């Protein structure tokens, strides 16, 4: 129910557009200074509430707009006294913004019934009080040289914004809590909150929101009194069916708004619309197409029309429901062992980016979420002991401890699920036991095969060695290649060489999309890796705790998923055949363990071909690193073939793996000086640059990849491009489909399917153009071939289809385009992968005021965390994190200062 929405440091605060009514939220981040606070509060009352939390006690007062600006800027709004030192960095956070929200069905309930509206407000009040008290008691400031000293907090200050509607004027009651980064320590001094701790603690805050929305007895009783209940997803079961129709209407509103706004801008070149005009556009967009729409909207008009639409969707809404007494599991009946197991499953699932490591905070958050879903209904004070008990039991029973130093801060990721630690050891052991050397064809033989495939084909030295290694009789081979080094060409030759020797090459990949492409281009058998594993008896199901359990059927066993007898694999793999895992950097440890079993049973060999410097797996990483260390043949491809400019190929290699910080600095400077970096003053400017690049490429009939840091940002960029295309008439808004999360999708839009579907013959992360929308289906054409058509159902579209003008690194992994643009805040793999998709030109957009600050940001982005394929590496990573953390020191500065690139409060 509570969600963290911290903006990038350069933005500081949220800016919201003034919509037609007070309390309408826009999630656009644009502000750099305290002036942004006034824009964000522009639709609020003349005064805003400030909550002061001091030693566990909350009091409040009111701030005027000018006081709010001073408060955000680190000045006491009453005395005008500066609080501590000015933030020296131009990109430092001024506030941290958390959002208290809930499923849309809660807002619909509040709109339908005034008593439920009051109960929902009270629920949010109680949650707000708990969150801000937790911030005061659990967060800390950093003091001293390089922020070495941890200072507990005596006082924090929070401003709350209450919103009633979404951007599209749907019922959506939620609140923003602005935590000022200026905090008062127990020593009576103002300094900056440790943002690293604050961000990690938000996992606990989010879990508290889930707990409140599902277990608060007053709220649940208020629902029960109206005959309403919560389902297993936390939604109000009797109202959930209203959410989708409202989302569809919301999508049409956004299309209306985009069309009108773009048309206005085309007629008023260089001008920006006023707040009054934006209000008029919003009112028009909201009312367009509604029967009996009011000419000039006001609060009563809005409520009346929405209520009418809700009743039109469900004419039975007005009936009185019987009181439905809420059933609660008694606290004493809770299965603590199961809750503890669920807590670790939750923490482990969130740990893939840190080598499987998680913190005590993460275990606590997992425990809270497990209790929230348990069916218990109780006051939060009655759940304190059970949360503590489940947290302690989970840590004791299901984790290994990587560090055992005293007084380790709770945010340090120093634990690992026992299952993950066992998995790392198992894969290492299996790899080592299978590795056996063999013989390889000569370079001359490989050259002959290459010429037989294509007379003009010449392989470089690395490709020859790679093809020979794959065609060898060694059981385990690894080929690591930078982007554009010709891995596909190498695989074609290796496959032909194997076939000459009477052996087969079977290509698999972690995704169906990648395996299909590789198999087609190399003329080899192919399947997704999981399809091959399933064929050979492996099954994966979720256990009671939610963990994915892998097991292998023997011939004659009953398949638990189908009830049929397993008769063995359909795809014959013979001794000596070569299983090639393409895009092997994305191979996760669970699949690797199963693959090694298949290799062992069939007598085949395995070759991993990929790049650990590109996108990592969704699950636990490190498989390719384990294979690399134990393979009897290791080949590194370094000659670049993809790019039109050979100097860019050389630069991309340095970008992939700079030797040290000095090399990273030189690489960053060269990126800037050669025109591969564009500076933006804000995220909004960066987004505009990406949108403009896509539109220009489309006009020039060139393919382009837009790479963003997050899926949410990809969708924001995609929706902005869609809005431009709506205004230009290049998509047809008369044909509407609803994609994931109620997203509007029109004929002409570029979209991506997000789930393999054999009946429709579509694959996960495959790009398409919408050809048409009918009542029965959505017709798609392949992005690269307009004659390659597929039909998907509206049900599939609603769950597994979204806009794809921009995407994350996982969406472009393996793609080649004419141009590529990488947005702000990607990680090292996102920067490298994004800047190696375009054959003709690649560009990074960096939010920075100067080239010097852009260079610093690029260097920081290039600093990769090391892969933690072994327990020793995970322990070392936890130690580095601990050494970087602020320590609790009384009286003197710690004798051993942690090394950190960040100053106090910049965590």
UniProtKB/TrEMBL annotation:
InterPro entries: Coronavir_polyprotein_1ab (IPR050534), P-loop_NTPase (IPR027417), TrwC (IPR014862)
Domain TrwC relaxase, residue spans: 63-306
Keywords: ATP-binding, Nucleotide-binding
Superkingdom, natural source: Bacteria
Pfam families associated with the record: AAA_30 (PF13604), TrwC (PF08751)
Protein name: AAA family ATPase
Organism: Leifsonia virtsii
């Amino acid at each position: 129910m509570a969600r963290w929405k911290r903006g990038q440091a350069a933005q500081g605060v949220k800016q919201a557009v003034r919509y037609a009514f007070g309390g309408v939220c826009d999630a656009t981040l644009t502000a750099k200074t305290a002036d942004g606070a006034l824009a964000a509060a522009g639709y609020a009352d003349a005064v805003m509430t400030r909550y002061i939390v001091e030693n566990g006690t909350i009091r409040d007062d009111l701030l005027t707009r000018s006081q709010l600006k001073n408060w955000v800027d680190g000045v006491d709004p009453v005395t005008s006294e500066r609080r501590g030192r000015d933030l020296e960095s131009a990109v430092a956070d001024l506030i941290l913004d958390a959002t208290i929200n809930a499923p849309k069905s809660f807002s619909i309930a509040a709109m339908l019934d005034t008593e439920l509206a009051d109960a929902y407000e009270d629920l949010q009040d109680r949650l707000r009080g708990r969150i801000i008290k937790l911030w005061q008691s659990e967060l800390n400031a950093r003091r001293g040289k390089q922020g070495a000293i941890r200072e507990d907090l005596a006082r924090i200050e929070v401003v709350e914004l209450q919103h009633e509607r979404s951007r599209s004027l749907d019922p959506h009651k939620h609140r923003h809590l602005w935590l000022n980064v200026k905090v008062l320590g127990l020593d009576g001094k103002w300094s900056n909150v440790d943002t690293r701790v604050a961000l990690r603690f938000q996992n606990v805050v989010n879990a508290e929101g889930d707990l409140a929305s599902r277990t608060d007895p007053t709220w649940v009783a208020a629902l029960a009194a109206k005959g309403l209940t919560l389902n297993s997803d936390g939604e109000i079961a009797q109202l959930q069916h209203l959410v989708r129709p409202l989302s569809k209407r919301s999508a049409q509103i956004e299309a209306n708004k985009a069309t009108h706004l773009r048309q206005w801008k085309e007629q008023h070149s260089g001008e920006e619309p006023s707040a009054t005009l934006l209000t008029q556009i919003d009112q028009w967009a909201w009312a367009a197409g509604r029967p009996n729409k009011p000419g000039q909207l006001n609060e009563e008009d809005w409520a009346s029309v929405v209520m009418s639409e809700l009743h039109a969707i469900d004419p039975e809404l007005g009936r009185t429901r019987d009181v439905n007494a809420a059933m609660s599991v008694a606290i004493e009946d809770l299965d603590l062992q199961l809750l503890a197991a669920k807590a670790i499953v939750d923490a482990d699932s969130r740990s893939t980016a840190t080598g499987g490591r998680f913190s005590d905070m993460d275990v606590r958050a997992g425990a809270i979420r497990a209790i929230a879903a348990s069916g218990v209904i109780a006051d939060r004070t009655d759940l304190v002991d059970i949360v503590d008990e489940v947290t302690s039991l989970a840590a004791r029973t299901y984790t290994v401890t990587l560090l055992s130093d005293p007084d380790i801060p709770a945010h340090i990721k120093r634990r690992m699920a026992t299952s993950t630690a066992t998995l790392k050891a198992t894969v290492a052991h299996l790899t080592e036991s299978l590795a056996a050397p063999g013989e390889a064809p000569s370079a001359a033989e490989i050259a002959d095969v290459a010429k037989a495939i294509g007379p003009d084909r010449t392989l470089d030295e690395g490709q020859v060695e790679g093809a020979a290694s794959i065609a060898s009789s060694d059981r385990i081979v690894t080929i690591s290649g930078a982007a554009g080094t010709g891995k596909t060409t190498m695989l074609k030759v290796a496959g032909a060489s194997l076939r000459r020797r009477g052996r087969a090459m079977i290509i698999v990949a972690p995704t169906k999309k990648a395996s299909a492409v590789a198999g087609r281009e190399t003329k080899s058998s192919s399947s997704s890796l999981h399809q091959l594993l399933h064929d050979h008896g492996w099954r994966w199901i979720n256990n009671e705790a939610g963990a994915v359990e892998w097991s292998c059927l023997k011939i004659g066993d009953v398949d638990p998923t189908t009830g049929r007898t397993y008769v063995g694999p359909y795809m014959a793999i013979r001794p000596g055949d070569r299983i090639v895992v393409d895009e092997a950097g994305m191979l996760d440890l669970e699949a690797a363990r199963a693959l090694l079993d298949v290799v062992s049973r069939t007598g085949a060999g395995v070759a991993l071909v990929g790049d650990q410097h590109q996108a990592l797996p969704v699950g636990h990483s490190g498989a390719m690193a384990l294979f690399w260390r134990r393979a009897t043949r290791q080949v590194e491809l370094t000659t670049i073939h993809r790019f039109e400019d050979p100097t860019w190929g050389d630069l991309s290699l340095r970008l992939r793996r700079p030797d040290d910080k000095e090399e990273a600095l030189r690489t960053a400077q060269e990126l800037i000086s050669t025109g591969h970096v564009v500076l933006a003053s804000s995220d909004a400017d960066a987004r505009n640059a990406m949108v403009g690049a896509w539109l220009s490429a489309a006009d020039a009939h060139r393919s382009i990849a837009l790479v963003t840091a997050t899926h949410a940002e990809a969708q924001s960029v995609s929706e902005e491009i869609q809005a431009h295309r709506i205004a230009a008439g290049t998509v047809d808004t008369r044909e509407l489909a609803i994609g994931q999360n109620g997203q509007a999708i029109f004929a002409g839009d570029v979209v991506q399917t997000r789930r393999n579907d054999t009946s429709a013959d579509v694959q996960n992360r495959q790009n398409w153009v919408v050809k048409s929308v009918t009542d029965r289906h959505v017709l798609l054409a392949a992005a690269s071939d307009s004659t390659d058509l597929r039909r998907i159902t509206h049900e599939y579209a609603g769950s597994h289809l979204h806009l794809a003008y921009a995407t994350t690194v996982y969406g472009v992994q393996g793609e080649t385009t004419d141009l590529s643009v990488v947005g702000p805040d990607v990680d090292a793999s996102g920067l490298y992968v994004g800047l190696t998709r375009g054959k003709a030109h690649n560009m990074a957009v960096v939010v920075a005021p100067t080239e010097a600050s852009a260079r610093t940001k690029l260097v920081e982005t290039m600093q990769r965390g090391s892969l933690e394929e072994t327990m020793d590496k995970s322990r070392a990573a936890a130690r580095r994190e601990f050494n970087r953390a602020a320590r609790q020191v009384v009286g003197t500065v710690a004798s051993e200062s942690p090394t950190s690139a960040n100053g106090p409060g910049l965590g």
